[in-house]
Write a structure and sequence with these properties.
Radius of gyration: 23 Å
Helix content: under 10%
Strand content: 35-45%
Number of strands: 12
Length: about 180
C-alpha cells in the first residue's frame, strides 16, 4: 500500500499498519512542545515583620526558543504564618500581578493559619496560566508573600520539624 493511501486512510478513519514501516519528515504546526524548564527553590527561610509583599520566591526567568509561542506556567508556592494570622500569596508573572479582574483583590491566594493546623501544616498556592510570547524575551515568575502580623515562613510550616516542601515552577513553550 502506498504511503499516500495509508495517510488518506488514516486521516479519513482508522487503518492497520503492519510490518515495520519507516516514517520520514518532521513535525510542525501549533501545539508542538518547543522547550521546557523547571525552577525549584528548596531552601526554607523566614522573614520577620513580613506585613508587606516582597519577592520571597524568585523563580528566575524562562527564555523562549521561538519569537512567537505560548508559554504555559504551572507553579506551586509554600508559605506559612503564625497561628491566628492571615497568610497572603501574590504571584507576579512577567511583571504583572496574577489577580482576578472585575474586583480589586490584594492576593492571588490567602489562608488563615489557625490552631486547627496545630502549627504543623500550611496551604500551598498553585497557579496554571499562559503567557503569549511575541518577542522571544525572557519571562519572569515571582511569588510574593506577606502576613498580617509576625513572621512569614517559606517552604515550611511555622513548626520546622513538621512539614516543608520545595516551591516549584514548570515552564512549557508550545508553538502557536
Amino acid at each position: 500500500m502506498s504511503r499516500a493511501r495509508v495517510l488518506a486512510d488514516f486521516v479519513g478513519g482508522t487503518t492497520t499498519i503492519s510490518g515495520n514501516p519507516t516514517f520520514t519528515g518532521s513535525t510542525s504546526g501549533a501545539g508542538k512542545v518547543l522547550k521546557t524548564a523547571v525552577s525549584e527553590i528548596t531552601a526554607s527561610t523566614s522573614r520577620s515583620s513580613a506585613t508587606s509583599y516582597a519577592d520571597d520566591l524568585d523563580f528566575g526567568s524562562f527564555t523562549p526558543s521561538a519569537t512567537t509561542s505560548t508559554i504555559l506556567i504551572y507553579g506551586v508556592a509554600n508559605f506559612d504564618g503564625a497561628s491566628a494570622k492571615y497568610c497572603y500569596y501574590k504571584w507576579v508573572i512577567d511583571g504583572t500581578d496574577y489577580l482576578s479582574t472585575g474586583s480589586t483583590p490584594i492576593a492571588t491566594h490567602q489562608f488563615y493559619s489557625s490552631t486547627s493546623l496545630n502549627n504543623n501544616g500550611y496551604m500551598p498556592s498553585t497557579i496554571f496560566t499562559s503567557v503569549s510570547n511575541t518577542d522571544g524575551g525572557a519571562i519572569t515568575v515571582v511569588c510574593q508573600g506577606k502576613v498580617n502580623g509576625g513572621t512569614l515562613w517559606v517552604n515550611r510550616s511555622n513548626n520546622a520539624s513538621q512539614t516543608g516542601s520545595p516551591s516549584t515552577v514548570f515552564f512549557m513553550e508550545v508553538s502557536n
